[in-house]
């Protein structure tokens, strides 16, 4: 097992192939800067000649020097029956002025015959010629052996020949790819153990997550000797995604003792995980290992009591090591202990004997009986707690609101929200349209508040859910509205409960905005 492992991030290339992800040029630059900040060794940024955006990115990056990272261009081996020097893809890589390229080639005879429609011998020549052409022109080349494990299981001798061809051409790393994501951990171990003694060049690993095993297979490959790990932030990528570098890096560093990034940069994992989800316009998964909001969350009273005595009782690592924090979920299951522990997290002093603790506990149980669910809306609970203890200023006060929905048989329904607020002693009366009542309320609220609180431009709603409470009442039943909001540093959840869906939505929406102002310490 190597003592050091190099990390190659392919969020901007493989991650961008994930459904629903589209990066602008500015997005790619910002993610590159963030990856450099946390000490990622290599950033695989795309195909230089595949589209104008990538061409512009590489042109821009040619003028930049980064503190930790090196930019890598991606491409394929030359086409069959032509010289490498005549291949447009390879020449575009040279024009990009990068010093490092990743070139992928075929390892599986099935692909050689059915996809490339060429001979096994020609494929070996394509690998050798392509790598040697770039290397003779001064580049370091990483060779991605596409579908290597499937190819090896089909024909071990030929798959190994493709690696030897890349090795003979001068590849710096031979990266074994589980492109279809179907290889099991035992197979990873067995195959690497068989091929490693036959090769001189360092191995790398590139896994996809179609069987839910990408991180496990990556760690096993490192145990077997792989010295480069490829993956994406949050596991973004085509189909089921790639190796998630967030848990992979944390596991390498904290569980296996392997040097891959510094201790100080490890503490930035939570920040970069949320940052990339925000830029990617993807909801950050609450159950994301290490960096999810629920990764170090405790709900049951037994768990909370144990964690208060010693966090190791229910936590596999200290959350601060990866920049995350411990959370106590508020519910009737947590009792007073949960309230006390959460108050401490909010820098408030409460004890079991404090009368305020008893009042808060009774209030919590009363609200949960009405349908509130603070376990899933900590931001609303923090506001409730601090308001109850007089620790929150009044950012704005609702005087009046009205929502109007217009619909006729010919046109799409339109919604307008009119709100009247008191803000810093002044009355703001605004109206705004939206795709629905909540969107219209959100637009009207922002319109009224942005001049007073510009930071609100950095947050947006990412999820909206409505649940009917008490089915027997039908359309007259109470509803619970849950809103998730997000900015560049994290996400938070708020709620409202009412028999009127507009009222419940306003409660959740106003809590969301107030929490943003509270967490940013806006005066």
Fill in the keyword field for this structure.
523 residues, alpha/beta, TIM Barrel, H-NS DNA Binding Protein, Double Stranded RNA Binding Domain, 8-stranded parallel beta barrel
Concise synopsis of the structure shown:
By secondary structure, the chain is α/β, with parallel strands linked by helices. It has 18 helices and 16 strands.
CATH superfamily of the largest domain: Aldolase class I
Query: What is the overall silhouette?
Result: elongated
Mean pLDDT: 90
Largest sheet: 8 strands, parallel, barrel
Radius of gyration over all CA atoms, rounded: 27 Å
CATH architecture of the largest domain: Alpha-Beta Barrel
Annotated CATH topology of the largest domain: TIM Barrel
Q: Look at the helices and sheets and give the structural class.
A: alpha/beta
Strand percentage, roughly?
15-25%
List segments where confidence is low: pLDDT < 50 over at least 5 consecutive residues: none
| Domain module count | 3
Work out the number of β strands. Answer: 16
Task: Give a structural overview.
- The protein has 18 helices and 16 strands.
- It is α/β, with parallel strands linked by helices and 523 residues long.
- It folds into three domains: 6-261, TIM Barrel (Alpha-Beta Barrel); 297-388, H-NS DNA Binding Protein, CATH 4.10.430; 397-519, Double Stranded RNA Binding Domain (2-Layer Sandwich).
- The strands form four sheets. It has an eight-stranded parallel β-barrel with strand order 1-2-3-4-5-6-7-8, surrounded by six helices. Strands 11-12-13 form a three-stranded antiparallel sheet, covered by helices on one side.
- Strand 3 (70-76), helix 3 and strand 4 (100-106) form a beta-alpha-beta unit.
- Helix 6 packs across helix 7 and helix 14 (335-345) packs across helix 15 (355-370).
- It is elongated and about 75 Å long.
- The mean pLDDT is 90.
């Amino acid at each position: 097992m190597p003592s050091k492992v190099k990390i190659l991030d392919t969020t901007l290339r493989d991650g961008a192939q994930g459904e629903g992800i589209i990066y602008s040029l500015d997005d790619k630059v910002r993610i590159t800067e963030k990856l450099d900040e946390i000490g990622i060794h290599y950033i695989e940024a795309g195909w230089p000649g595949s589209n104008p955006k990538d061409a512009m990115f590489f042109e821009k990056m040619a003028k930049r020097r980064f503190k930790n990272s090196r930019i890598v261009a991606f491409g394929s081996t030359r086409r069959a029956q032509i010289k490498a020097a005549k291949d447009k893809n390879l020449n575009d890589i040279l024009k990009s002025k990068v010093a490092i390229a990743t070139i992928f080639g075929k390892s599986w005879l099935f692909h050689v015959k059915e996809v490339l429609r060429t001979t096994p011998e020609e494929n070996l020549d394509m690998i050798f010629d392509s790598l040697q052409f770039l290397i003779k022109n001064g580049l370091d080349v990483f060779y991605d052996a596409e579908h290597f494990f499937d190819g090896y299981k089909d024909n071990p001798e030929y798959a190994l020949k493709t690696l030897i061809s890349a090795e003979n051409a001068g590849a710096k790393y031979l990266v074994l790819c589980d492109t279809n994501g179907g290889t099991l951990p035992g197979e990873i171990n067995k195959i690497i153990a068989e091929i490693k003694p036959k090769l001189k060049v360092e191995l790398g690993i590139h896994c996809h997550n179609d069987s839910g095993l990408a991180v496990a297979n990556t760690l096993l490959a490192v145990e077997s000797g792989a010295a480069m790990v490829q993956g994406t932030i949050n596991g973004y990528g085509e189909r089921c995604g790639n190796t998630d570098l967030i848990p992979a890096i944390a596991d390498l560093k904290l569980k296996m003792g392997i040097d891959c990034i510094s201790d100080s940069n490890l503490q930035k994992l939570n920040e970069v995980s949320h940052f990339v989800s925000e830029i990617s316009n993807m909801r950050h998964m609450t159950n994301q290992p290490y960096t999810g909001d629920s990764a170090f969350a405790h709900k049951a009273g037994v768990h909370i009591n144990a964690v208060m005595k010693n966090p190791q009782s229910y936590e596999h690592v200290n959350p601060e090591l990866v920049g995350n924090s411990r959370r106590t979920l508020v519910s009737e299951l947590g009792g007073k202990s949960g309230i006390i522990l959460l108050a401490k997290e909010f820098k408030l002093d409460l004890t079991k004997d404090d009368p305020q603790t008893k009042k808060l506990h009774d209030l919590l149980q009363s609200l949960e009986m009405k349908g509130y669910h603070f376990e899933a809306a900590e931001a609303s609970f923090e506001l409730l707690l601090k308001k109850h203890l007089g620790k929150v200023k009044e950012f704005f006060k609702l005087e009046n609101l009205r929502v109007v929905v217009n619909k006729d048989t010919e046109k799409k329904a339109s919604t307008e929200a009119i709100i009247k607020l008191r803000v810093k002693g002044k009355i703001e009366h605004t109206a705004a349209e939206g795709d629905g009542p909540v969107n219209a309320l959100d637009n009207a609220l922002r319109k009224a508040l942005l001049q007073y609180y510009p930071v609100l431009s950095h947050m947006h709603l990412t999820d909206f859910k409505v649940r009917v409470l008490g089915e027997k009442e039908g359309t007259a039943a109470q509803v619970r509205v849950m809103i998730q909001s997000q900015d560049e540093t994290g996400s938070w959840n708020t709620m409202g409960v009412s028999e009127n869906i507009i009222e419940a939505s306003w409660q959740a929406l106003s809590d969301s905005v107030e929490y943003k102002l509270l967490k940013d310490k806006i005066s």
